[in-house]
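Field reference: sequence -> structure
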Amino acid sequence: MRADAQALKGHLDVLLLATLNDGPQHGYAIKEALREGSGGRFDLPTGTVYPALHRLERAGLITGSWSVVDGRRRRSYQLTAEGHKKLTGERANWREFATAVTTLLEPGPWPTTT
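Structure field:
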């Protein structure tokens, strides 16, 4: 199953932050990290990834810098302190959410409340 940009709506920002957790990367490498890290399920168009990176930069969660590699300009991004903090919080939220969904999707019986 390959997810499209619409299916990831609301989750893309945290996924992009997670790709930058290990250090700075240029935009195309971030796009590829999403694809490879998801086993090909998140193969998003650059028209989805780059606007999200710009949004994260405006929000102060990542910072970008230009460099020249093989005569071509590249913009690399890295997490800010605020971005690290946001990623940590979102990971905790995601674990709670995933646990709840997994519990509901497992075969019953479910606990009942009265």
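Note: The radius of gyration is 17 Å.
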